[in-house]
Amino acid sequence: EQIEKGGYEHFMLKEIFEQPKSVHDTMRGRLLVDEGIIKMAGIWDHVEKFKNANRIIIIACGTSWHAGLIGEYLIEEYARIPVEVEYASEFRYRNPIITDKDVVIAISQSGETADTMAALKLAKEKGAFIYGICNVVDSSIARITDAGSYTHAGPEIGVASTKAFTAQLTILTLIAFKLGKHNGNLGNAEFMSLIAELDAMPKKIEEVLSSTHELTQNIAKDFVKATNFLYLGRGYNYPAALEGALKLKEISYIHAEGYPAAEMKHGPIALIDENMPIVIIAPRKGHYDKIVSNVQEIKARKGKIIAVVNKGDRQVSEMADYVIEIPETSECFSPIVASVPLQLLAYYIAVYRGANVDQPRNLAKSVTVE
Ligand code: G6P
Fold first, then answer.
1. For this UniProt entry, which residues form the secretion signal (predicted)?
2. 124, 126, 299, 365: which one is catalytic?
3. Ligand 1 centroid – CA 108 distance (Å)
4. Which ranges of the chain does DSSP label H, i.e. alpha helix?
């Protein structure tokens, strides 16, 4: 096992550090930057299905569901196809309206999650075209779907998903750009600049890993005794906030809630005092001014602010107690870079609390029962 961990103390840490490679592997052979092409047979062979779809319904559980939410933002922004995202467990039992004009995408690292599988079967029975985004090759979900794209993240052992999540975001980004280009919503110049940026993501993740590794350890030390955490973000980073909170609760057993920053005033603001740590994801691109005013509201209530911002940020950083810098990207890529320090922060808080990081209590890597 020590050998498999490759010198890291836990699989989770190893997997966090593998992300430059896993994102790269997920794009390999698909993203041909010089030719300006995204090659995805699963999409291309059925492109008319996607193009003519009434809507795309994304179903998933857990971390994969968070990736799905970001997928909704991506596909709606770039391909202009309506998307709905549902928890597989809700979808399967609520007699949903599905027709043969719908495309249903299941996202699942393991490809074995019982609820996701059952939801897919239901969609198939009702005539929808079903597509899989799985990490495990030849898994049950990969086998029953009409088509799909594998994330090539490699085996993920830590129960809390890290590299599978960023690989799922990579696939969803490729799908959104490919469909957008095909149906004319994404112009050539923008397409070319976005794919060049996507191609550079492994490097950016590398940068974030080295610039935030020590910093997140130091921040973690101050929150070992925390009992609650709030995670806030807007736009693409709202699901990133949900995922940051999920990581923390899964492995450290600290109660954590993710929220869209603007919803704070409808509830969570009542919880803010000097004992409440708040992680706020505030990159420059993406409603920055609005976030500044959310941070002012937190500051006025003495919340402890851990801000994830772009290099050189001033306004939010001046109000924050802790600042984590990430490189600037187009908004749609910011969840990929923002998630990395949040994974590290959750990891170190859990380690300092003495928790079993790779196998948290009560959780399973693959939930094959209801
Ligand atoms: C479990 C795992 C999570 C995962 C979820 C969905 O809860 O602990 O890490 O996100 O299942 O799993 P899937 O394999 O379908 O992505």
1. none
2. 365
3. 7
4. 11-17, 19-27, 41-44, 47-51, 62-79, 88-91, 114-125, 140-144, 163-182, 188-199, 201-221, 237-252, 288-300, 315-319, 334-352
